[in-house]
Prior knowledge:
about 0% strand; mainly alpha
Amino acid sequence: MSAPTIDALPRARDAAARESWAEAYALLRAQDARPRRALTAEDLTSLAEAAWWSGRVDESVTARLRAHAAFVARGDHRGAGLASWWLAYEYEALGRPAAASGWLHRAHHHLDDEPPCPEQCFPAWTDAETAAARGDRAAALAAARRMTALAVRSGSPDLLALSRQAEASVLLADGRRTEGLALLDEVMRAVLAGELGGMVTGRLYGLVLTRCLEAADLDRAVEWTNAAMEWCAPPWTGRPPAPGAPLAAPSGENPFRGVCRAHRVQVLDLLGAWALAEAEARQACREVPVDCRESAAAAYCTAGDVQRRQGRLEEAAASYARAHELGRIPQPGLALLRLAQGRADAAAAGVGLALACLGDPRRDALGRARLLAARTEVALAVGDVPGAAGAAAELEVRAGDVPLLRATADAARGAVALAEARPEPALRLLRRALAGWLGLRVPYEAARVRVLLAAAHRAVGDEGAARRELGAARAVFERLGAVPDARRAAALAAGGTRRTPAGRSG
């Protein structure tokens, strides 16, 4: 055996330790092809991770299966248990729930009888998510805190950050917003300081950004999506560099880039950067790994929302259809598309079904708020003022002091007050909604509220104020390319109608 061959395995292990995954993959694959010196269970685990980072998900699963067999062969239940959990995680992401369930059961078989150990963190994490999904928040919190206790005992910064995120997720779902967000801040401090490994950093960016958007925390979402994209940008080597350290040469594409970009698309959409949001959505769909299809689905939904608001209805329908193919219910965008197409009954049915299917109403506050706002708009469009009032009332209950939810609720209640011919309460609510959207820097929603304010001003006889609001709204719509809204604002400014506009959600 030549000297380079003898040195290959130590160099491969060193590359894996440095998270230089492209290098590790090449060296481990070459070594695996030489039967004289078989890869150990740990080497096969590194090969699985290197294959995943290199975009070879099938090879990653195969290597993980071999690693599990190698751990079992030497009687290492902790190693076998962790390999089993990762196989369950990967099979679930690949849309194979039966295989995932079998491997999760296997993970418990290996680990449940072991003394407390770091590997038990991962089944505890799954236990927390499973309990949260069925609405058992007490069991979910107990499992998350069991994970935290194991992580603290292990002394692993990676495990501690993951456990804090798991606990924060349960707290947010339980309505304990202040506590949950404080834990997310703690997690992101470790992420942004570069204290965690590449795999954990990437997973946490995806998880934390999801939690922020669900909690309607736009400020954190903006800050952390920007940080995520900086981490994903080349040159990239896996672990974030220490402060002041030079960047190393790139070792390949970051597979988390598409996931992080999909989150950024949602933020760009809210901030009114529609052209960039649509372009980034297309890019995200090209970058997202095959085991992260839900991120691609979210990007298609956001692209559809942009296209719908700009009057590009056929393109929007195609985007929503693609999101549906990837497993996401494209609501409320699809209902609002049906409304724009003149199919109000289909719109009402679609948004009603989506609300019924949403599950735990506290788990995704922003998602439910958007559905309720759409239900308000659709109900007003078909003359169902009581139905609109009911949806707006639920929004009011759920909004609390969260700025984005408060602005959504105030706008919906203002629209209902207009429909009930109560212009003075409508003015009060809509002025507060406008201030909220302007403070959040969400231009499209602010412009939609201005149109409603114009109707309220006209109802009390203040034509000058109505025209000022319509002019400001039209300028924003034209800048965004929201052609149907711009035309409507222009027609209203010209005195084409005094009818109260129906709805306001975007």
